[in-house]
Amino acid sequence: MQLDAQLDTSTRDSTWRHRIRQSPLLAVLILASGLCLSFYLSSKAAQQSRELTLDRFQATVQQTTRVIQEKIDRFSLLMMTGRGLILNNSSLPSAEINTRWHRMFDSFQVDYGDLGVVGLSFTRFIPAHERAAFTANFNRQDTRRLKIFPPPADNQPSLAVLHLVPKSIEERMLGYDLMSEEKRRQAVLETMRTGRMVLSRPLSLLPTDINSLDYLQMLPVRSTEDDVTDRFLGIVTIGFSMSMLIEASLKDLSTPMRVELIDTRESLNTPSFDTHPALGDTESALSLTRVLNIGKHSLTLQISNLDPGANATFTRRYDIATLTSGLSLTLMLTLISMFFIITRQQALQLSRKMASRAEEMHQRYKSLFAQSPEAIVVHVNDRVELANQHAARLFGCTSPEELYHRPITDLVHPSSMELVRRRRATLSQGSPLEPAEQLLVRTNGQPFMAEVSSSLINHQSQEATQVIFRDISDEKQQRLEARMTHILLEHSHDALMVTDAKGQIELINPAFQRLTGYSSKNAIGRTPDLLNSGQHSSQFFYQLWSSITESGLWQGDIINRSRNGHLYIQETDIHALRNEDQEITHFVCLMRDVTEQRNGLALHTNDERSKAR
């Protein structure tokens, strides 16, 4: 009986299990569980894909924006380098400055096309009343022919292009007047008014058949002539094509990108430039906004992904491969793993490429840093971390390493410490700083006066301060000596005349006008022949010039004729001035009227002869 009961129970259990296996409820439960699991895993896989795609896109956008910004940041260093060259060589002839301008910028070996730079120039400010004389003097001293164009109004000053790289466009642009076009003139007036770096509104620098967005960035050049006032020399201008710069930064990317640039000074919504204008208002699922800073101005970049696969991945709610695999968990995990590995590998390759480009940009910055004619020091937390060779020489060191880890305050004279603290506070608030004169100290304790410019930069992922120094001790001494020389010339009783190597008069003093009757307006630009009385033979003047050219000096009497026709005897000292190549560049002539002395001597001699008879 018990055995029968056990058999009945076992049969009922087996029947129940069989019914369960055959019941549609189990199939529904399995199907529901499988569908839920498939949709869940597919949804999670799609979410991961979206995140990876977004990370790739964000990394690409971040790296691309950084590359463009670093290129733009180099404009300021190039312009300040150009300004330093002009200020340090302002007394040289234009031809010599132009030679040094090309020699310096060619030595940098900068790829201007990669930077989008159309031209880097110095434009000279020429008042309207000095334009004709400046042009004539330029063409007299320089082998290049200067003609200011378009023709300016008679009462309007000019900003004429004098020095320009690359050299291939210098001849075509020499003499171009920035004041001739409205957008350029507005930017010029703003930089003259503020004394700061200014970015023009969009304008055209390239041929009209090229779809290009161009700008001019301007840096004023002022030379301090005394302790109170300064003189506006002109503007260092860098013309660049933002479209060329953007396209050069996008050409090596494996993922196609669309970049729209918005200049809010022109429009708040309408792009000033579009790498793919044919797409119109088409929106992309992957799109980010970034800001480029150019001086005090900012430009907005709208960057969109044009890869259809990436956009589809970003908008997809479910991973199709995972969903179609159903309950095949192994295949699903394999597909996801492969996708992750491939995506990760591409991201790493892109990261390495961007890191290599960043390192290349860093090396180029180091090259500019080392070769800059200005003394540059970078300090972090008030301690020197970086310095170039010019800074080492300026502070009396044999190598830049001697300045490393020194407190920056050790290089500042106590009398300038309060000024440094005020400028540091202003800079930390993000406010721009104008160059200022400070008293600094060399490592041997010797003080000297310098012009100092400071700006915030990023150094090894830390906020740092870059300081540019220019020793102006000699400049201030030269200004003092120039003032003293001017006083001596103005109040000297001896007449003075300075000519160039060809004998054309360049300078006279008031005593010259009193002696000869000729004013500066009547004499400058002419030759000493205007004083010729006809009393001396050509042999006399031949011997005079032979003596000057051979020995550099001639002394003697010359009978000259003043402007009113009066003959007088002139005691004359003529000195030849030579340059470092021993070539005569000028003649300095000192003159004094000795007519009465010479006549008195003649009378005394005649009296003695009469007594002897």
SSE layout:
Blueprint: H1 2-22, H2 24-88, H3 94-107, H4 112-115, E1 117-126, H5 131-141, E2 158-165, H6 170-173, H7 182-194, E3 198-199, E4 214-224, E5 230-241, H8 242-250, E6 257-262, E7 273-274, E8 287-294, E9 297-305, H9 308-315, H10 320-324, H11 329-371, E10 375-380, E11 383-387, H12 389-394, H13 417-428, E12 436-441, E13 447-459, E14 462-471, H14 473-491, E15 495-500, E16 505-508, H15 510-516, H16 520-523, H17 538-551, E17 553-561, E18 567-578, E19 584-593, H18 595-612
Antiparallel strand pairs: 1-2, 1-5, 3-4, 4-5, 6-7, 6-9, 8-9, 10-11, 10-14, 12-13, 13-14, 15-16, 15-19, 17-18, 18-19
Helix pairs in contact: 2-8, 2-9, 2-11
Description:
The strands form 4 sheets. The chain has a 5-stranded antiparallel beta sheet with strand order 2-1-5-4-3, sandwiched between helices. Strands 11-10-14-13-12 form a 5-stranded antiparallel beta sheet. Helix content is 45%, strand content 24%. Among the domains are: 59-249, 2-Layer Sandwich (Beta-Lactamase), CATH 3.30.450; 374-473, PAS domain (Beta-Lactamase, 2-Layer Sandwich), CATH 3.30.450; 492-606, Beta-Lactamase. The longest helix has 65 residues, at 24-88. Helix 2 packs across helix 8 and helix 2 packs parallel to helix 11 (329-371). With 613 residues, it is of the alpha+beta class. The protein is built from 18 helices and 19 strands. Residues 151-254 form the CHASE domain. Keywords: Membrane, Transmembrane, Transmembrane helix. It comes from Marinobacterium maritimum. The chain crosses the membrane at residues 20-41, 320-343.
